[in-house]
C-alpha cells in the first residue's frame, strides 16, 4: 500500500512537470510564430507602400500632379482609399503597378454596392490616403496591428 501511494505521488509530479514543459514549449512556439507573423505583415505593408508609391510616381509623371485628398479624418479612410485607387486606375502605367498588389489587399474589387475598390493593410484595415497640394509626396497610413488609427503602432509610408 505504501509503495503504491509513493508511486501515485511520483506519477502526479511527473504529470505536472510534463504539463508544465508542454505549456512552456507551446508558449515559445506561439511567441516565435506571432513574431514571424508580425514581421511578415510589416514586410507586406512595406511592399504595398512601395507599389503604391511607384503608382503615385507614375501618376505624377503622366498628369503632373498627385491625387488630391487634403482631409485628415481617419473616419473617412475608406473614401480616401477609394479616391486613391480610382485615380491611380485611370492612368495605365499606375494601373499596371496596382496589378502587382495581391488581391487579398483589395476589397470591393468589383465595385460592389455603392463603392469602388479600397486598399487594405495586412491586418485588415483600410488604408488612409492624404495629399495636401504643395506637399512633396502623398502619405499613406496604416492603422497597424491594433487596427486603430491615431495610435503609436500606426505605420506611415515614407
Ligand atoms: Ca494603430
Describe this structure in words.
The protein is mostly helical and 158 residues long. The chain has a single domain (46-156), classed as Glycoprotein, Type 4 Pilin (2-Layer Sandwich). It has three helices and five strands. It has helices spanning 2-63, 77-89, 92-98; strands at residues 106-107, 118-119, 128-130, 139-142, 155-156. A hairpin with an 8-residue loop joins strand 3 and strand 4. The longest helix is centred in the first third of the chain and has 62 residues, at 2-63. The relative contact order is 0.13. Residues 143-144, 146, 148, 151, 153-154 line the site of calcium ion.
N→C terminal distance: 74 Å
Largest sheet: 3 strands, antiparallel
Helix proportion: 40-55%
- Main-sheet strand order equals 3-4-5
For the record, the CATH class is Alpha Beta
Mean pLDDT: 90
Unreliable spans: none
Listing every helix as H and every strand as E from the N terminus to the C terminus, the arrangement reads HHHEEEEE
Strand content: 5-15%
Please provide the count of β strands. Answer: 5
The Rg value, from CA coordinates, equals 24 Å
CATH architecture, by name, is 2-Layer Sandwich
Which structural category fits the helices and strands? mainly alpha
H/I helix tally: 3
Amino acid at each position: 500500500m505504501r509503495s503504491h501511494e509513493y508511486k501515485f505521488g511520483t506519477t502526479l509530479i511527473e504529470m505536472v512537470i510534463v504539463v508544465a514543459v508542454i505549456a512552456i514549449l507551446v508558449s515559445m512556439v506561439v511567441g516565435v510564430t506571432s513574431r514571424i507573423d508580425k514581421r511578415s505583415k510589416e514586410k507586406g505593408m512595406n511592399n504595398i507602400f512601395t507599389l503604391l508609391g511607384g503608382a503615385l510616381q507614375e501618376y505624377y509623371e503622366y498628369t503632373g500632379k498627385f491625387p488630391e485628398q487634403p482631409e485628415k479624418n481617419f473616419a473617412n479612410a475608406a473614401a480616401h482609399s477609394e479616391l486613391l485607387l480610382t485615380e491611380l486606375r485611370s492612368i495605365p502605367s499606375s494601373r499596371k503597378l496596382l496589378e502587382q498588389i495581391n488581391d487579398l489587399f483589395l476589397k470591393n474589387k468589383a465595385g460592389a454596392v455603392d463603392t469602388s475598390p479600397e486598399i487594405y493593410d495586412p491586418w485588415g484595415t483600410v488604408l488612409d490616403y492624404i495629399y495636401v497640394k504643395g506637399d512633396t509626396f502623398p502619405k499613406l497610413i496604416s492603422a497597424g496591428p491594433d487596427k486603430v488609427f491615431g495610435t503609436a503602432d500606426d505605420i506611415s509610408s515614407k
